[in-house]
Write a structure and sequence with these properties.
Layout lengths: L4 E4 L3 H12 L4 E4 L7 H5 L3 E2 L6 H17 L14 E5 L2 H16 L4 E5 H7 L9 E5 L3 E2 L2 H10 L7 E4 L4 E5 L2 E4 L4 E3 L2 E4 L5 H4 L6 E10 L9 E4 L2 H4 L6 E9 L5 E8 L9 H14 L8 E11 L6 E4 L7 E5 L5 H16 L14 H10 L1
Parallel strand pairs: 1-2, 1-12, 2-8, 4-14, 12-19
Antiparallel strand pairs: 3-7, 4-6, 5-6, 9-10, 10-11, 13-16, 13-17, 14-15, 15-16, 18-19
Helix pairs in contact: 1-6, 1-10, 3-10
Length: 376
């Protein structure tokens, strides 16, 4: 197969881009140094959430969540898609007010959400600490096991016949209309998409991406403890700390009966090792929300690195720098799974010069080139 598009990076974002372009009739070749669904895709929680930190984040996450809900009936049991909903938990009156404001913002955009007072919260999630004052339930938020979805998109989806996957194929350089491989080979195509997360910086060192390390832990299998994905309302503040280490409560019920726990954020390290002090801090915070947690058995902890852009939004569009035919789909930070399907639609619309489903301007990589000129 002679490809129309080369994609570097077989995580969930790259896989979504491949499936979308193949569905539009293009022949796609997928290149990855390892295999399908590795990197940040394998390390993350797999949540699909509407976030409203900014209008652009809201537009992208809401549109993408809708696409996930459309795709869900095609997914397999092993893909572990569940529409469990997100429950944002308020620990004090200040956070309860934040929940009310978030509810009003979602209601204005017709996003289904319900405020829960303290008694309704306890009825909904009895395992939460009795000191919690309320919460906000976003009912259509979901979870999924992204590595197997990436595999399905590339090898079993309706468009998979037009996709060739080449695992174990590192790319060392990107040029206009082609890529250089580690073995010295060269592949050409009309379009090249870089969707390799932090690895994109090895191909384009000028990309404004910063690694944001995170820890996760999964427990043994237990009777159902929680029913929703639970996040503290303080998460929004801690998620955007620019320096140092922060933790926040995030617990997810897996279909296996396990509990998946996060989250931590570190900007000051690129060491992938699990750091016990950070993990302990994260679990201590989680126990404030789930008092039964210390009695559970954790069976595995791991880390991953999110690729964060300066403004918290992904880079979706032409790479620029006189690289005709080179496109970016990187910088999704902790929302790569959530926004993967929308990223693919936006990028495919740009490549094929077709109508945009939502405005693409907030995500175009050129916004950072403009900033460099303005501050240069």
């Amino acid at each position: 197969m002679t490809a129309d598009v080369l994609i570097v990076g077989a995580g969930i974002v790259g896989a979504a881009c491949a499936a979308e372009l193949a569905a539009r009739g293009m022949r796609v070749e997928m290149l990855d140094a390892q295999g399908i669904g590795g990197g940040a895709t394998a390390a993350g929680m797999g949540h699909i959430v509407v976030m409203n930190d900014s209008p652009a984040e809201f537009a992208l996450s809401r549109y993408s969540r809708d696409l996930w809900l459309e795709l869900a009936p095609q997914l397999r049991e092993r893909d572990a898609f569940r529409r469990c909903g997100t429950l944002w938990v308020a620990a004090d009156d200040e956070e309860w007010q934040a929940a009310r404001e978030m509810h009003a913002a979602f209601a204005a955009q017709n996003v289904a959400a319900q405020l829960l007072d303290a008694s309704a919260l306890r009825a909904c999630e009895p395992a939460l600490a009795e000191s919690m004052v309320g919460g906000l339930r976003i009912e259509h938020d979901s979870i999924v096991y992204a590595p197997t979805v990436a595999q399905w998109l590339l090898t079993q989806s309706p468009a998979a016949a037009k996709i060739r996957v080449r695992p174990g194929t590192p790319v060392t350089a990107i040029g206009a209309r082609g890529v250089t491989l580690a073995d010295g080979g060269y592949l050409s195509a009309a379009h090249v998409i870089i969707a390799s997360g932090l690895g994109a910086q090895q191909l384009m060192p000028s990309l404004p991406l910063q690694p944001k390390k995170g820890h996760l832990l999964i427990t043994d299998r237990y009777p159902v403890l929680i029913h929703h994905q639970l996040l503290e309302l303080g998460y929004i503040k801690s998620a955007h700390h620019a320096l140092g280490t922060s933790v926040a409560f995030n617990a997810q019920p897996r279909p296996t009966g396990q509990l998946l726990l996060g989250s931590s954020r570190q900007f000051d390290t690129t060491d992938p090792a699990v750091e016990l002090p950070v993990l302990a801090q994260m679990l201590h915070r989680a126990a404030r929300y789930l008092p039964a947690l210390p009695a559970l058995n954790g069976i595995r902890a791991w880390t991953g690195f999110r690729a964060a852009s300066p403004d918290g939004l992904p880079l979706i569009g032409p790479a620029g720098d006189d690289r005709a035919g080179v496109w970016l789909a990187v910088g999704h930070e902790g929302l790569g799974v959530t926004t993967s399907l929308a990223t693919a639609r936006l990028l495919a619309a740009q490549i094929t010069a077709s109508a945009m489903p939502i405005p693409a301007e907030p995500y175009l990589p050129a916004r950072f080139a403009t900033q460099r000129v303005a501050h240069g």
